[in-house]
Amino acid sequence: MAAAIGRRPGEPRRVAYLYILPAVLVFGLFILFPLIRTAQFSLYEWNGLGASSWAGFQNYRDVFTEPQLRGAFVHALVLVVFYAVVPVLLGLLLAATMSRAVLRGLGFFRVVLFLPQVIPMVVVAIAWRQIYEPNGPLNDLLRSVGLGALARPWLGDYTWALPSVGIVGTWVGTGLCLVLFLAGMSRIPRELYEAARLDGAGPFREFRAITLPSLRGELAVALTLTVIAALKTFDLVYVMTSGGPGTETTVPSYQVYNNAFLLGRVGTATALAIVLTLVVFVATVLINRVGERGQR
């Protein structure tokens, strides 16, 4: 009786551990264990079939010294602009416009802009590959309005192939950012805008002083999701260009596939995967730290 009186309220701690045990087992079996095995493979020279040999950190040195592998990260950074920066700016602009103006069929436009998010990326890639064909709809449109000089094989052009893939990422990501920002704006009290208007604030000042600071949490979520999508993109590149022309559109995920399954360099591929995982982790932590600091 005395022991029961001295015990803290609630279940014993051992019972609490039992509650989280299934989740810990699933995490360890399907995430932690594969990650550890990947890190182990990255220290060996292995073609995926025969015997392996110890390579130490040579595979990691290859990731940072081989131009093709290093270039893949540069291409991923370019895609961050198209996948994250442009969609966030467009999403803010569209959300600010929709929240101020009374638009007929607003729900329809919202669904249409969000639709690319629910379409499988392989379908998106095939559709846009048809659009970018030399005799596809985009070049036909340019020729019909007298801009035939701009028509080109977009995905075969060394200058325009990567931006062409990036534009597809912009098309997909803008709807997600728009929905997030509209949800955030719906929580801002209308009294703040009315008070700002009484003080003579215009639309731009209202946006800068009220809307933007209130959306820091949504901005952090949108940037986190879109930056991760840019860094780990694979399906768009694989279906649209297969990394070409040359290596102009290769990205880290595609190089992981290329080295592991086509070139038989499993050690290099897993080292590249570990570096990519660290880059994604650091980017996520930095974005959330900045977002949390702004909310204090």
Automatic annotation (TrEMBL):
Residue stretches making up the ABC transmembrane type-1 domain: 73-287
GO CC entries: plasma membrane
TM annotation in the entry: 16-36, 72-96, 108-128, 160-183, 219-240, 260-287
Membrane topology: Multi-pass membrane protein
Keyword Transport: yes
UniProt-recorded name of the protein: Raffinose/stachyose/melibiose transport system permease protein
Keywords: Cell membrane, Membrane, Transmembrane, Transmembrane helix, Transport
Claim: Membrane is one of the keywords in the record: yes
